[in-house]
Write a structure and sequence with these properties.
Shape: globular
Strand content: 15-25%
Oligomer: single chain
Order of helices and strands: HEEEEEHEEHEHEHEEHHEHHE
Helix content: 25-40%
Distance between the termini: 43 Å
Low-confidence stretches: 26-33, 242-293, 304-316
Mean pLDDT: 75
Length: about 375
């Protein structure tokens, strides 16, 4: 009993010391009288009345670099000093100096995160009352960490290893540093040495604003083998005249648990260029002004005649990740093994596990075809 209590107290003491060092080093040089001070995080609000607002928080610290995949505990003193929650930064740690940038995406549902959203809205309303236009507000943050293990160390992964990153919703924070780190060194690799692809599933096209700056940098990346595919799962396409596109196509497959009336509301658009799943009844690649013409950036949609009327079983729809992985391995991988990094809801991760298992083939690898050597590194998230 006493020994256990001693270990617990030692652990708490080390954590408090690490937290104090981060905050002291961040402000001690400017205000020597302050031994401890919170960070002021720039907070942006992305409103979503149905699924919960998303907050983006950005701030800088003076600390040693962490490893990709590690997380931090964030405490918000304006709400409570007694609670801290784990979040994974979407930024790649800097290798130069000790100044590190932190960026987080937080889906606000209930409890502490909901209080955080209300606080951000109050500050935004106060700025509007004072007739000050502010795209963001400031939130006090206390940081503790990093914790967890590294998921990606570039010097330990061969240059011919192909990388597929799959994310659902705010799970993009888990895999974005991997993509950024690989692309930052892509110029040292030959054009055909590695295939790199990002698949991101979001509810609405506007959700891309969460990481708009990062997406712009990724789209301008000088890598012929890099591709981004964004799947919009909850938003109705719009025709050129502004009306909803209710085009129906034959070939709908029935998912277990969906009634015939629900089936009548859905149609599956068959497209040889797109991967379709029975859990994502309608998939359409965007055309016209609502699409991107670059070769490495594609937006595709899952839609219905009336998105709001979809049953709860369809609300968890996502593209067929097995088919997407098959496209990646068959069409894009030239040689070498593949590594899949993923973060999303349990159903997505489960489908990915099955897909990775199905595409692994010891017999083919034994014969020298390494493209069928596929591994999965994943992080479970509870929302999409």
């Amino acid at each position: 009993m006493i020994a256990s209590l001693g270990v617990w107290l030692l652990d708490r003491g080390v954590r408090l010391l690490r937290m104090a060092l981060i905050h002291y080093r961040g402000f001690g040089r400017e205000k020597a009288s302050l031994l401890f001070k919170h960070f002021d995080a720039r907070t942006q609000i992305f409103a979503d009345d149905i699924h919960g607002d998303v907050l983006r928080m950005d701030f800088e610290t003076d600390q040693a670099r962490w490893k990709i995949g590690q997380h931090f505990f964030l405490c918000f003193p304006e709400i409570s000093w007694w609670q801290a929650h784990p979040f994974t930064p979407s930024t790649r740690p800097s290798r130069i100096g000790t100044r590190q940038s932190h960026s987080y995406l937080i889906r606000t549902r209930g409890g502490e995160t909901r209080k955080l959203a209300r606080l951000a809205h109050r500050k935004q309303d106060a700025a509007c009352t004072e007739k000050v236009h502010a795209e963001s507000t400031s939130t006090n943050v206390v940081v503790s960490g990093p914790y967890g293990r590294s998921i990606f160390e570039r010097n330990r992964i061969p240059n011919d290893t192909n990388i597929l990153c799959v994310a659902g919703g705010t799970g993009i924070t888990y895999i974005l540093p991997v993509i950024i780190d690989v692309l930052s060194h892509a110029q040292t690799l030959s054009p055909s040495s590695r295939a790199l692809e990002l698949i991101w599933m979001i509810r609405r096209k506007g959700d891309m604003q969460w990481i708009s700056e990062e997406l712009n940098r990724l789209r301008s990346a000088r890598s012929a083998n890099f591709k981004i595919r964004v799947f919009v799962t909850r938003e109705e396409p719009v025709n050129n005249d502004g009306s909803a596109d209710t085009h129906e196509a034959p070939g709908l497959q029935k998912e277990p648990g969906i009634t015939e009336n629900e089936i009548n509301e859905l149609r599956l658009e068959t497209d040889s260029k797109s991967a379709i799943s029975v859990v994502s009844p309608i998939l359409r690649e965007e055309t016209g002004s609502d699409s991107d013409t670059s070769q490495n950036f594609v937006i595709e949609r899952l839609h219905s005649q009336n998105v709001k009327a979809l049953p709860s079983s369809i609300d968890r729809a996502h593209p067929d990740v097995s088919a997407l992985m098959g496209e990646f391995i068959s069409n894009r991988v030239v040689c070498g093994p593949s590594q899949v990094f993923a973060s999303g809801p349990p159903r997505l991760i489960s489908d990915l596990r099955n897909a990775v298992a199905s595409y692994n083939s010891g017999r083919k690898v034994w014969k020298g075809d390494e493209k069928y050597d596929v591994t999965l590194v994943c992080d479970n998230r509870l929302e999409l």
